[in-house]
Specification:
Number of helices: 11
Strand content: under 5%
Largest sheet: none
Structural class: mainly alpha
Distance between the termini: 37 Å
Order of helices and strands: HHHHHHHHHHH
Shape: globular
Mean pLDDT: 84
Low-confidence stretches: 212-228, 235-242
Length: about 240
């Protein structure tokens, strides 16, 4: 599929998905169609929660250094750097987008919404889990075996759907998050093509940033996202100049 290798197509599709979903989400209302999709997924049987929760962790911030470590064990430092830059960058940008759009969580917008597991805090649009999973999946897919690609391709939509199932996000939140992850990964890929050493030079500093972002300080998640993104970019540029 051409879109997997063409960074311009991935960037355009991702940016379009964010724009198309952010506009209705910004109204902080839920349309009839979106509500129906949410209720159909959110109303699935409770016994699914265990296996769904496991797959959902593929979009957690902690999955970023874990995936990068796996790439390092496979002796692919470039992929490790792209996983870290794309995953951490998507997570940080998702915090900024949330503050711009300011959409509430499903429980405040859809009557009868069910919440499973720990209640999600903060704002709803967009889904950081969906974004992180797509960013890392898009980076890894071209380097995987056919069976590995099939496994990742099957897991990615489940991560997004799981966030609807547990009542943390609405469909537009998930679509917007997936679009953000695709766009960020494409931007990282374009930067890596211009700077072939990006992966190796980014691995050290961005691995630390991913760990720091997973445990935000008292300054709050938004400030942490801005600080981590600025620090990561600064370290990369400093490495480039040296």
């Amino acid at each position: 599929m051409r879109w997997l290798t063409d960074t311009r197509i991935r960037l355009g599709l991702g940016a379009a998905a964010v724009l198309v979903t952010a506009l209705p989400a910004r109204r902080d209302r839920v349309g009839h169609g979106e509500a129906q999709i949410f209720r159909a997924i959110n109303g699935l049987p409770d016994p699914l929660y265990g296996p769904v929760w496991v797959v959902m962790q593929l979009g957690a911030l902690g999955a970023v250094p874990a995936a990068a470590a796996a790439a390092l064990l496979a002796h692919d430092r470039e992929l490790a750097g792209r996983l870290l830059a794309g995953g951490t960058g998507t997570w940080a940008l998702s915090k900024l987008v949330k503050q711009v759009v300011r959409r509430s969580r499903p429980a405040a917008l859809v009557s009868g919404a069910r919440t499973r597991g720990r209640d999600a805090s903060g704002l709803g649009y967009l889904s950081g889990h969906a974004g992180v999973a797509v960013a890392m999946g898009a980076a890894a897919l071209p380097r995987l075996s056919p069976s590995g690609r099939a496994l990742v391709a099957a897991a990615l939509p489940i991560v997004g759907l799981s966030r609807i199932y547990v009542g943390a996000h609405l469909p537009y939140d998930v679509a917007g998050g997936a679009g953000l992850g695709l766009a960020v990964e494409a931007a990282v890929g374009a930067f890596a093509a211009w700077w072939p050493g990006l992966g190796e030079e980014a691995t050290g500093p961005c691995m630390g940033l991913a760990a720091m972002a997973g445990n935000p300080q008292a300054s709050g998640p938004l400030a942490t996202g801005r600080r981590d993104t600025a620090l990561c970019v600064g370290l990369l540029l400093r490495a480039r100049r040296s």
